[in-house]
Amino acid sequence: MHDNLRNLGLEVLEVVNLRSMLNPHHPPRDRSRRRSPCWPIFSARAWCVTSDSVTSRPTQVAEGRRICKIVCVQNLYNLAHRDDDALIDDLARDGIAYVPYFPLVGFSPLQSSSLDAVAARLGVTPMQVALAWLLRRSPNILLIPGTSSVAHLRENLAAAECALPDDAISELEHVASIVPA
Length: 181
Description:
- This protein is α/β, with parallel strands linked by helices.
- The protein has eight helices and four strands; from the N terminus they run αβαβαβαβαααα.
- The chain has two domains: 1-76, no CATH class; 101-181, no CATH class.
């Protein structure tokens, strides 16, 4: 973190994206202190930042919020991986951003075929549909899709203009329930 401050010529980082290496689905508890292992991570960071971004489960987010201000949570989330639906809604209610990582990967062939079908009907790419769905999912979702070229960047940006009709949304809502073959 000190290298970032020096390299950016800053005294304070306004937002730090903290990715915990803990298993977010089954975090162990430190029984001696009655705190989860994320407590030392947050407390060590809280002194040098004004806000924090975390990769966590709801209990870890709640614990982190008692230690420092959290402005963003970043977890695996996309059309096929929807474990954070309730968390996204809770964060939106509290004005906290959510950044899905791997927004465009992890689709089974059957899930991809459903995405491809919607994209073909709309005359856009499957990835534009996946990004458009995420943008429509909740107003607190912020996207940072990777790109390797200006053309790909333009394609990603065009997803914001992709209007998804109700029948497409209905079809896309079922992608997560498709069992991989």
